[in-house]
Each structure stands twice: as C-alpha cells, then as structure tokens.
Amino acid sequence: MRRPSGGRTLLLIAGAVACGQRGPSFRSGAALLFYQGLPTGHQAGLSWAPDSGHSRLLGFDEHLKLTRVISSPRLSQPVAVSPLGPDLLVTERLGDGVVLDTVGRPVREWSSPPPDVASLYASNGREVVAARSPYFVPLLHVEADTAPLVRVLDTLGHTVAGLATVRVPSNPFLAGLVNAGAVAVDSAGTVFFAPFARDEIRAYEPGGALRWTARRGIFPKEQDPVYETHGSDVRAHFGVATLALAVHGSRLYVLGSRDSTATRRR
Predict the structure, then answer these.
(1) How far apart are CA 215 and CA 26, in angstroms?
(2) Which of 20, 58, 91, 260 is deepest in the core (most CB within 10 A)?
(3) 3-state SS, one letter per residue, for the chain
C-alpha cells in the first residue's frame, strides 16, 4: 500500500497568534508543522522537516528560510522528526528509529518494536511513543486482540508500556491497516492517536486512560477497509481520514486528507 500523494504541502502557524502560547523553540515568527504531508520536529530554534525523497532533513528558521540540511548514511526515507533531548528522533519509512544530533552525527538507532512491522515515533523531548506507521502498512496482516495500540518507549527504543488495545476489524487480515495511524505526545505526556483510515482522534492520559474521542464528520458512512485480489496483486480500498498530527504550544493540529492545500488549521 502506498501513502496517498498529497503533493508538496506545508502547514505553518504563527507562534504567538495561533497557539495561545508560544512554542518552546520560537519567540516570534512561524513554526513549520508539516512538510510534504509529514510531521516535523522543533529543536535548536529550527523546524526540522523530513525530506524523504532526498534522504535528508531540512532545517527552517522562524521566517521559514531553509538554513540547514542534514544528510547522513543513516537516513534512507525519513517520514517524521521529533525532538529527543538535545537531539532529533527520525522515523524511517520501514520503521527504524534513528537519533541524530543537530550536526547530523548518529547517536543511536533501533528497529521497530516487535511485533509491529513498521512504527511511527513521536516525542515531546523526553518521552517516546510508537504507533503502527501509516507510511508502510502490510496487507493481510493479523493482530492479536490483546496487542497495545500505542507503545511507550524509553529513549533507547525499548518498550516499557502499552496504551489501549488494537481494534480487530471484520476482516482480521486488515488489522495492520485498521490500526495504523498518526501519533503525537504533548509536554504533559498526553498521547494523541488518529487512525489513518478512520474518522477519529483519541487522547490518552499518561497512565493509559482514555481522556476524549473526537470525530470530524469526514465520511458520510464509516466502514472498515476491504481488499480484493487480481492474480498476485492485492489492493486495499479505504478512505483516508488523517495524514499526520502535531502538538505545538497548547494545541493539537491535525492534517486531514482533505486539507490538500494545508492552509486550514484544525
């Protein structure tokens, strides 16, 4: 399954106006939240964006001027960036976590926590969470109904806790797709999860209790994905609800599939 092509999209906010409070890295100007439909991270006064097609990270200042480029043999297809301590936590498309400093030197890396095929990571600078990545989704993949929906990791990539449990769809072979989604975590440790193919956003307390659930009315009728086969070719049919999440200041921002110009703030 391929990630839907949304073109070259940027979503930015004015730090002092749109957020209600200023983000940790910007005193004025703008912060870049999404780049080409992918989540960015803010560190050392810059917005760091994954440039997946060129195996590098891009650093934008508060005026959205490109001021830094990080290329590294450890980067293949970066799809998300988060701050982790003084460093940058990069999600690779196939689920590896790569930690680089802001000069581009590798600090450490880890593989996707089993049994997830590919994970998407998010961090608030201290805590790391992992969900099933929407950027590399296996088809015909069965999940145990007791598997955690979101994993809490230590800063070395080891699983230390799980939040909630996966949803088993009517066709259990599509569990990987049904439970893939965007993830974010705020400074208080609240974890936000939005299924890729379902109109839903959930917020979990640090201890795992569900705080709230929100829906946006994207689909007239909600239904599970279905798949069909044509010889050896297997295709899934589904609606895309959410491409990415971002936390900035005191607000959660959602990049939906219909935000094609990425100019509307959710």
Answers:
(1) 31
(2) 91
(3) CCCCCCCCCEEEEECCCCCCCCCCCCCCCEEEEEECCEECEEECCEEEEEEHHHCEEEEECCCCCEEEEEECCCCCCEEEEEEECCEEEEEECCCCEEEECCCCCEEEEECCCCCCCCEEEEECECCEEEEECCCCCCCCECCCCCCCCEEEECCCCCEEEEECCCCCCCCCCEHHHHCEEEEEECCCCCEEEEECCCCCEEEECCCCCEEEEECCCCCCCCCCCEEEEECCEEEEECCCCEEEEEEECCEEEEEECCCCCCCCCC
- Give 250-263 pLDDT, tens digit per residue: 899 999 876 544 33
Tell me the C-alpha distance between 14 and 265, whole Å. 11
Q: Which two tokens stand for residue 28?
A: 């004025």
Range name among 38-42, 49-53, 68-72, 237-241 with the lowest pLDDT average: 237-241
Render pLDDT for 107-117 as a digit per residue (tens, 0 to 9).
999 999 888 88
**Residues with Cβ within 8 Å of residue 54, at least 6 apart in sequence:** none
Which of left, alpha, beta for 29 (phi over 0: left; psi -120 to 50: alpha)?
Answer: left
Residues 6+ apart with CB under 8 A from 30: 12, 13, 14, 15, 62, 63, 64
Q: pTM of the full predicted structure?
A: 0.85
Average pLDDT value over all residues in the chain: 85
Q: Residue 80 to residues 9, 92, 179, 207, 246: CA-CA distances in angstroms?
A: 14, 7, 18, 25, 11
Do 96 and 106 contact (CB within 8 A), yes or no?
A: no
Question: What span, in angstroms and rounded, lies between the C-alpha atoms of 134 and 120?
Answer: 8
